Amino acid sequence: MTGGATLVIQQVLTALLLPPLLLVLASLLFGVLAWRGWRPGGLWAAVAVTGVTLLATPSASGRLMASLEREVPLATPRQAADGTLPGAIVILGAEMATGAGRPDIGPMTLERLRAGAALHRRTGLPVLVTGGPLASDAPPIAQIMARSLREDFATPVQWVESQAPDTRGNAVLSAAMLHQASIGTVYVVTHAWHLPRALEAFERAGLKAVPAPVRPARSTEPQWSDLLPRPDHLAESWFAMREWLGRLVYAVRD
What we know:
The chain is α/β, with parallel strands linked by helices and 254 residues long. It folds into 2 domains: 3-69 and 231-253, no CATH class; 88-214, HUPs (Rossmann fold, 3-Layer(aba) Sandwich), CATH 3.40.50.620. It is built from 9 helices and 7 strands, in the order ααααβββαβαβαβαβα.
């Protein structure tokens, strides 16, 4: 099986196993069962729809994100837990934007690049970008990231890791490159909600990882408006649940 086919299967399974698609499919199934005479079906369909609605509220997405972000610091530490200093900056790819022109970085990837470039200016450390193709006909996201760092942030890129299909691959393949340069401790730049899984992956790959959180968003005092559903918060809830699913997979597999 090719890497592209594996990526597609992984994306399909993730979509099917997580809300909102899982709850939407459940509501359709229970709705059909109710229509065919199974009386509890209507109640379970309503429960599924309510679940989707709740996940779209800032209250739910904020709590899900906080459950991940509480494991990482709000600011970037200067050294690893054992006192060793980082020798490089690793920026993890996220999503890609497509349009009429050439492929470009997406909003989350842009946030990570901006944070990585700022960290490079403060520390002077060399930069590694990591991420493989996100679609069968697309260039590796790492190549697009390297181009953006040079053109948009005037930041040089020392290493481009362009094969990793996921976070575990980011860690394993980046570690192989950096160990050749005798680097054993790195800053890992990614979103705060993604850092717990990323740090686990890098530690397993043999690199001491110092978290460099992007846009940490601790939950604030609740407001009535937090109960109003919004599509962007449904996406945040999905990202958080995907992280917990990924951490479960890592725990079982490793």
